[in-house]
């Protein structure tokens, strides 16, 4: 139990609290910051070197405390970073007020979480339900967006910047589409070519027919109702509508479609080098680190099968 009342009139904590209030910090944030500063004060005083005084604290003291939180208290990276952020705010304010000569936390960095987290993806049941919903609604633009995201693995910025000239279609003698490719300029201006699945080809052609009827004159493939180039926020609003209808949680994003694309290819036997090339990753190592992490269901299946 943190004895906030014991410390609030010491170490300028009352004034620090007023500063946080004046900067429109929430009640929860103020409580967290004050408690974390008090925890550091108690840690320092327990060291029995000298009594806590903001002016005597050094960067080494902060780094030692961070190490203590990590190795002795075994706190998570996020919990440690919150404690350090609280101290950085406190010492920064002390410097602004002229109480200390130098902000000793200015060069203290956040800890990085070395764990690679499983990317959020659709399971097959959710993907099928989502696809069915898009097609049942029957909006050709939305279907085109859905197919490009889920079967090309595009980033949001790549999607909104697609131009008609980036789409290459080959037709047979009957005028039917035989194959197609998408030429994408991705991160770092890196070029990649993505072969188009038949569903993507069909969705693009259906949307282009609608464009022609509306007499849209723009080099960009995806154009809003107001005949403007789409923004990433505009794409997000569209997919959010479908996610809400299926009552999906807010963690599903535009990038979830890209994760689904990559995970599905790997799950079905595609080699990592090919998936890396399609996704625009620098190497297959990056692809492997991200998309070969088993999800919770896969881990559970292994336990049930092999134990």
Provide a compact summary of the structure.
This is Integrase/recombinase XerC. With about 300 residues, this protein is mainly alpha-helical. About 55% of the residues lie in helices and about 5% in strands.
Keywords:
elongated; DNA polymerase, domain 1; DNA recombination; 307 residues; mainly alpha; three-stranded antiparallel sheet; 2 domains; hpI Integrase, Chain A
Describe the structure.
InterPro entries: CB (IPR044068), DNA_brk_join_enz (IPR011010), Integrase-like_cat_sf (IPR013762), Integrase_catalytic (IPR002104), Integrase_recombinase_N (IPR010998), Integrase_SAM-like_N (IPR004107), Tyrosine_recombinase_XerCD (IPR050090). The chain has about 300 residues and is mainly alpha-helical. It folds into two domains: about 5-95, Orthogonal Bundle (DNA polymerase, domain 1); about 125-305, Intergrase catalytic core (hpI Integrase, Chain A), CATH 1.10.443.10. It has 14 helices and three strands. It has helices at about 5, 15-20, 25-45, 60-70, 75-95, 125-135, 140-150, 155-160, 200-215, 230-245, 255-265, 270-280, 285-290, 295-305; strands at about 165-170, 175-185, 190-195. A three-stranded antiparallel beta sheet has the order 1-2-3. A hairpin with a 5-residue loop joins strand 2 and strand 3. The longest helix has 20 residues, at about 25-45. It is elongated, with a radius of gyration of 27 Å. The mean pLDDT is about 90.
């Amino acid at each position: 139990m943190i004895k906030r009342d014991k410390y609030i009139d010491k170490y300028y904590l009352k004034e620090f609290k007023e500063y946080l209030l004046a900067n429109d910090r929430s009640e929860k944030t103020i409580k967290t910051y004050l408690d974390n500063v008090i925890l550091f004060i108690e840690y320092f005083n327990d060291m029995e070197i000298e009594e806590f005084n903001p002016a005597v604290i050094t960067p080494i003291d902060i780094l030692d405390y961070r190490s203590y939180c990590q190795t002795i208290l075994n706190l998570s990276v996020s919990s440690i970073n919150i404690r350090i952020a609280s101290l950085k705010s406190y010492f920064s304010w002390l410097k602004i007020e002229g109480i200390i000569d130098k902000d000793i936390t200015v060069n203290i960095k956040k800890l990085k979480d070395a764990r690679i987290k499983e990317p959020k993806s659709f399971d097959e049941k959710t993907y099928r339900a989502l696809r069915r919903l898009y097609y049942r609604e029957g909006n050709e633009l939305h279907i085109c967006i859905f197919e490009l995201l889920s079967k090309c693995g595009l980033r949001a910025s790549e999607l909104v910047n697609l131009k008609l000239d980036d789409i290459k279609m080959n037709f047979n003698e009957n005028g039917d589409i035989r194959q197609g490719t998408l030429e994408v300029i991705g991160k770092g201006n890196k070029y990649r070519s993505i072969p188009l699945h038949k569903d993507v080809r069909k969705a693009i052609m259906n949307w282009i027919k609608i464009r022609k009827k509306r007499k849209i004159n723009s080099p960009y493939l995806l154009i809003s109702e107001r005949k403007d180039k789409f923004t990433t926020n505009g794409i997000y609003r569209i997919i959010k509508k479908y996610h809400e209808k299926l009552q999906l949680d807010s963690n599903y994003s535009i990038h979830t479609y890209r994760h689904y694309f990559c995970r599905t290819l790997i799950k079905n036997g595609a080699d990592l080098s090919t998936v890396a090339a399609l996704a625009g990753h620098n190497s297959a190592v990056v692809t492997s680190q991200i998309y070969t992490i088993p999800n919770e269901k896969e881990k559970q299946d292994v336990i049930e099968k092999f134990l």
